[in-house]
């Protein structure tokens, strides 16, 4: 059943369902009706009444019964319902302040990405993932050009979001330090504060003009432009930490599938695809996905909680926690919100 069917569940049924999920998270054992009856705090509720509700929830796909005489265990659908109620949980100011302080110690986006994954791992004891994804909307701050031996030049491009990209290129003819200084000054004077895609368009227009054949700076600039100056590409900065936290988790996986899981987590491209596939929510909205088998067969019993954060200068940050289906969703959602709020609060 989808979200529409779930919204029609009576409030007491939803409370019982979420109590079952919470109990299962705490114990890891199938949950019996008498356990929920003992834990029930909203007045008296008999085991027989709870058994009837559990039977209805099983029929609707929220609960499964591993053995005939055993209690029930939540399905992906139940975890999804439970986690959705926590997705707007407020964040303690002191925790946000600490997260901001940690992230502010990193002066570059790359550094913040690494700090974010570390923070998420430390706060949740699961797998912390953070990525910064460049776009054509990045804004140029400045370039620096340095001559090297053998006709090589080190090109350094800094964008307003503090991303730094370096590239060494070999030229067919040498450029002096004076040449490089002229090119650097031309770009910084004319294009600092411009969006990169607009710089490319304007440079192509200027280089196509007749005067470019007589302007020494433009003639030399084209040598570097043809080698990829200002071409940052769309390579994402990805950092993941805490995969070892999955070792002690009770998964129903064969050794082969467990090995496949860790191999998948070692591939940055696959991690990026995971974020793109499951974090399609609008910026700043927490996304919760339970059961990731669509991404990889070995991830059936994993959940992903994360959000997208829009950064100044055309960057998008994606932060997430990957962990077992039986995770502490409240704690993880709170941690993701903390780090997301810290990222948004950083100075430009």
Spell out the blueprint of helices and strands.
Layout: H1 3-7, H2 11-27, H3 33-39, H4 47-59, E1 63-64, E2 73-74, H5 76-84, H6 93-104, H7 109-124, E3 127-133, E4 140-147, E5 152-159, E6 164-170, H8 177-191, H9 196-208, H10 216-225, E7 237-241, H11 255-265, H12 268-278, E8 287-290, E9 302-311, E10 315-324, H13 329-345
Antiparallel strand pairs: 1-2, 3-7, 3-10, 4-5, 5-6, 8-9, 9-10
Helix pairs in contact: 2-5, 3-4, 6-7, 6-13, 7-13, 8-10
Oligomer: single chain
> What percent strand?
15-25%
Instruction: Note the total helix count.
Output: 13
Helical amount among residues, as a percent range? Answer: 40-55%
Unreliable sequence segments: 1-6
Quickly give the structural class. Answer: alpha+beta
Number of strands: 10
Major sheet size, sense and barrel closure: 5 strands, antiparallel
Radius of gyration: 26 Å
Q: What is the H/E order?
A: HHHHEEHHHEEEEHHHEHHEEEH
Main β-sheet, spatial strand arrangement = 7-3-10-9-8
Principal-axes geometry comes out as: elongated
How would you state the average pLDDT, rounded? 83
CA-CA gap between termini: 44 Å
């Amino acid at each position: 059943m989808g979200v529409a069917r779930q919204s029609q569940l009576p409030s007491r049924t939803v409370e019982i369902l979420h109590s079952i999920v919470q109990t299962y998270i705490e114990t890891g054992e199938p949950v019996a009706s008498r356990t929920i009856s003992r834990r029930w705090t909203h007045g008296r509720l008999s085991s027989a009444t709870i058994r009837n509700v559990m039977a209805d929830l099983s029929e609707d796909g929220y609960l499964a019964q591993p053995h005939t005489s055993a209690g029930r265990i939540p399905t992906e659908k139940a975890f999804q319902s439970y986690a959705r109620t926590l997705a707007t949980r407020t964040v303690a100011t002191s925790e946000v302040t600490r997260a901001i302080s940690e992230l502010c110690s990193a002066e570059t986006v790359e550094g913040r990405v690494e700090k974010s994954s570390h923070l998420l791992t430390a706060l949740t004891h699961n797998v912390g993932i953070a990525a910064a994804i460049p776009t054509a909307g990045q804004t140029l701050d400045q370039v620096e050009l340095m001559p090297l031996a053998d006709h090589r030049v080190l090109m350094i491009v800094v964008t307003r979001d503090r991303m730094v990209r370096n590239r060494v290129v070999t030229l067919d003819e040498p450029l002096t330090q004076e040449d490089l200084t002229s090119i650097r000054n031309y770009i910084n004077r004319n294009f600092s504060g411009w969006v990169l895609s607009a710089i490319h368009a304007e440079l192509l227009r200027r280089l196509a003009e007749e005067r470019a054949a007589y302007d020494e700076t433009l003639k030399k600039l084209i040598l570097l432009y043809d080698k990829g100056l200002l071409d940052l590409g769309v390579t994402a900065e990805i950092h993941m930490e805490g995969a070892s936290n999955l070792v002690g988790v009770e998964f129903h996986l064969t050794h082969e599938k467990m090995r496949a899981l860790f191999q998948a987590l070692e591939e940055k491209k696959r991690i990026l695809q995971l974020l793109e596939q499951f974090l399609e929510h609008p910026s700043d909205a927490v996304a919760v996905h339970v059961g990731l088998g669509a991404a990889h067969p070995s991830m059936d019993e994993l959940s992903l909680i994360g959000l997208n954060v829009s950064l100044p200068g055309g960057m998008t940050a994606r932060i997430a926690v990957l962990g077992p289906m039986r995770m502490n969703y409240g704690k993880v959602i709170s941690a993701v919100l903390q780090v997301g709020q810290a990222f948004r609060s950083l100075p430009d």
